[in-house]
Amino acid sequence: MMHIGSLEAGPRGTIADVAGVTVGHCTLAQGAVQTGVTVIRPHGGDVYRDKAPAAACVINGFGKSVGLVQVDELGVIETPIALTNTFGVGTLANAQIRAAIAANPRIGREEPSVNPLVFECNDGYLNDMQAFAIDEAHYMSALDACSVDFERGAVGAGRGMSCFELKGGIGSASRVVHIDERTYTAGALVLANFGRLPQLTIAGAAVGRTLHVESEAPNKPEQGSIIMLIATDAPLDARQLRRVAMRAAAGLARTGSVYGHGSGDIALAFTTAYTVRHDAAFIATPPLVSDARLDPLFQAAADSIEQAILDALFSAETVSGRDGHRRISLKHALETRP
Fold first, then answer.
1. CATH code at position 234
2. Whole-model pTM?
3. Domain span at 56
4. For the residues 87-105, what does the mean pLDDT come to?
5. What confidence score (pLDDT) does residue 336 get?
6. Pair type for strands 81-85 and 118-121
7. What letter would DSSP give residue 17?
8. Is residue 2 part of a domain?
9. Which Gene3D superfamilies match (predicted)?
10. Cα torsion at 327, 331, 335, 338 (round to 10°)?
């Protein structure tokens, strides 16, 4: 797979190049059930007690996520980030709440409630969402599996996802940036489930127009989505993190997306440079990067999101699911094109 942009990748080429970030999956793949859960931990501690500064950007709001309102208001996340299918959101929110209470029994009593953070995409083309196959144990399994080494492609929440009418799913990438004399890393992870085949653009080339695969009705409105996560170890505040999150749209657009009416396109950026202690009266922060020095991080966000989308496409395998529906992998489509 080609390298996007001029910035170098980190050693793993994934979001786990940002120290402390781990990812875990739980995959359900049996007959009409092709779905799963993916969990991203911003650090190895208790995220409720040591919250990660974060901000989100809603590019197109056709989505059913939980937790974005409070992230927008307070500028922190206080649970790991969970990804799944549309009908699994409520179940995972409950699982996150139970996990937080188990670690902090005073939640909802002597202490405030907890803000679960769950993102979704509709995997209903391949997965029978009406089976409601996701349960709380799948969240805990994905949480327990979190590691710096994780699979990409048709795994976890990405199992049933489609991208440009091909097999989509989980993709990840990283970029190293230099700001004055300091070096930082930005890492991306996407749940890619969007786009129509003729739009697919790879490194500026209109590849989708050269592929001939089983396609849905050409005039059917787009009903996909993409969730884009950006982690960095650069010291930023929530306002700056929202600016970084906005640049995910640039990377998304380069792949051919037009943010269709039925697509929920949401980006969230967080930093591992410091945490916000739950019960602190005052918050100690390191010196923040000046706004005038953010351009390298903006480039890293755009490039790593574009790379992560391609990673999802190139990593995914062909999957068959509900009612005989099938999505072939990009690799297979490229190998069999005329």
1. 3.60.70.12
2. 0.97
3. 15-277+289-336
4. 98
5. 87
6. parallel
7. G
8. no
9. L-amino peptidase D-ALA esterase/amidase
10. 60
> Would you state the pLDDT for residue 222?
72
CA-closest candidate to residue 202, choices 45, 312, 128: 312
In a domain, 8, yes or no: no
Q: What is the reported pLDDT for 50?
A: 98
pLDDT at res. 337: 81
> Which DSSP letter does residue 233 get?
-
- Residue 135 has a pLDDT of 98
Number of domains making up the chain = 1
The packing angle between helices 295-315 and 238-246, to 10°, is 50
Q: Give the catalytic positions in this structure.
A: 225, 263, 265
State which amino acid sits at residue 300.
A
What residue type is 135 in one-letter code?
Answer: D
Q: For residue 227, tell me if it sits in a domain.
A: yes
Residue type for position 328: I
When mean pLDDT is compared across 92-106, 154-168, 214-228, 293-307, the lowest value belongs to 214-228
Which one-letter amino acid corresponds to residue 71?
V
Backbone angles phi, psi at 181, to 5 degrees: -105, 10
Q: What is the mean pLDDT of residues 186-193?
A: 98
CA distance 8 to 5: 8
Q: How many residues does the chain have?
A: 338
CA distance 79 to 180: 33
Q: Report the alpha-carbon distance of residue 320 to residue 283 in Å, rounded.
A: 50
C-beta separation of 168 from 162 below 8 A:
yes
CA angle 52, 75, 93 (to 5 degrees): 70
- pLDDT at residue 215 tops 80: no
Determine the average pLDDT of the residues in 210-230: 81
**What backbone phi and psi angles, to 5 degrees, belong to 53?**
-60, 135
- Roughly what angle, to the nearest 10 degrees, separates helices 136-144 and 89-103? 60
